Amino acid sequence: MSEFKAPQLDVSSILHGGIHHPTLREWQANGRTLTKSMFIYPIFISDDPDAEEVISSLPGQKRWGLNKLEGFLAPLVKKGLKSVILFGVPMKMEKDARGSAADDPSTPVIQALHLLSKAFPQLMLTVDVCLCEYTSHGHCGILSSLPNPGHSNQPTIEMEPSAQRIAEVAVAYAKAGAHCVAPSDMMDGRIRAIKLGLMHAGLANRCALMSYSAKFASGLYGPFRDAAGSAPSFGNRKCYQLPPQGRSIARRAIQRDANEGADFIMVKPALPYLDIISDAARLAPDLPTACYQVSGEYAMVVAGAEKGIYDLKEMAFETTESMVRAGASIILSYFTPQFLDWLDEEK
Ligand SMILES: NCc1[nH]cc(CCC(=O)O)c1CC(=O)O
Ligand SMILES: [Zn+2]
Ligand SMILES: [Zn+2]
């Protein structure tokens, strides 16, 4: 008879006890689980009122005309869509150096704000604030005539006039009914300029400010620029968006924007920047952290699934849950319509 020898009892070696049941596995998220109200759905609004245009580089997404918006959103709102972020796509409007079309009363996002606040009074309306969709040069600010000291084919931005112009546009959106404005230009001083603009207009208590604080000069914005027609006509955005290796400057940007009056901090893109999401959640613990799974990230997940590399739903969950785990509680996602279904299904 072999003698049984009890192994050394190491209580910390046992993990399976905590994951053998689906509910136990959910508990392992420590309360940080996805819910429908965490999602913001990005929507492209065309100035062609009857548009319903497929965007080939952004599978499943379309540019919507005003006449099509209500019909498109109604079923999603019924399924629990709580919030959208609007991007204006002026296909026919004239573009100039200061982006005058951005806050023209006829501009698609202002029209959409009027329409959506009537059609869906409960839906939270955020508007992306930027000039690049509306400027003739396609850059996010107002350009200086001075050459760029670093590179002849790069723009030099006039910082103060840009921040003022962006604030003007943000206030126009707030006046038109935006519940939240989200500047994506990355110019210095624009959070303070917008907050002061809202205060002077008497709208600061009625419009939140979500700062794209840590927005990196990423290769993942390509499909968006197709969708919005906002690619720069020369140079690139490396002079004003953060360098991808710049964790410290991102931390400074987050702290700066928190001090300048941001209500929410956003990190963008999301998946390659989970460390920055985690930094944001710690550096500004009293401001909820948002992140944007941008067009190229979305297209990557979809493309891999189409190639049979993984299951689409599984990878959409895994990528999105990684953002929540890192510290995000608000997620801008092109997968929002699917999540409204998926979150109702059994896992
Ligand atoms: N400033 C405009 C803007 N706002 C959001 C995105 C990207 C969103 C996405 O890729 O889904 C961009 C593009 C850019 O900075 O070039
Ligand atoms: Zn821009
Ligand atoms: Zn430069």
TrEMBL record:
* UniProt KW keywords: Heme biosynthesis, Lyase, Metal-binding, Porphyrin biosynthesis, Zinc
Q: Binding positions for Zn(2+)?
A: 130, 132, 140
Known catalysed reaction(s)? 2 5-aminolevulinate = porphobilinogen + 2 H2O + H(+)
Q: Which GO terms describe its cellular component?
A: cytosol
Q: Name one GO biological process term.
A: protoporphyrinogen IX biosynthetic process
Q: Which residues bind 5-aminolevulinate 2?
A: 295, 334
Q: Extract the Pfam families matched here.
A: ALAD
Entry's EC annotation: 4.2.1.24
Q: Entry's InterPro entries?
A: ALAD (IPR001731), ALAD_AS (IPR030656), Aldolase_TIM (IPR013785)
Q: Which residues form the active site?
A: 215, 268
Q: What cofactors does this protein use?
A: Zn(2+)
The GO terms this record gives for MF are: porphobilinogen synthase activity; zinc ion binding
Q: Where does 5-aminolevulinate 1 bind?
A: 225, 237
Q: Which pathway does UniProt place it in?
A: Porphyrin-containing compound metabolism; protoporphyrin-IX biosynthesis; coproporphyrinogen-III from 5-aminolevulinate: step 1/4
Q: What class of enzyme is it?
A: lyase
Task: Name the NCBIfam families for this protein.
Answer: PRK09283.1
**Role:** Catalyzes an early step in the biosynthesis of tetrapyrroles. Binds two molecules of 5-aminolevulinate per subunit, each at a distinct site, and catalyzes their condensation to form porphobilinogen.
Q: What subunit structure does UniProt give?
A: Homooctamer.
Which family is this sequence assigned to? Belongs to the ALAD family.
Provide the protein name: Delta-aminolevulinic acid dehydratase
Question: Which organism does this sequence originate in?
Answer: Kwoniella dejecticola CBS 10117
Q: What is the lineage of its organism?
A: Eukaryota, Fungi, Dikarya, Basidiomycota, Agaricomycotina
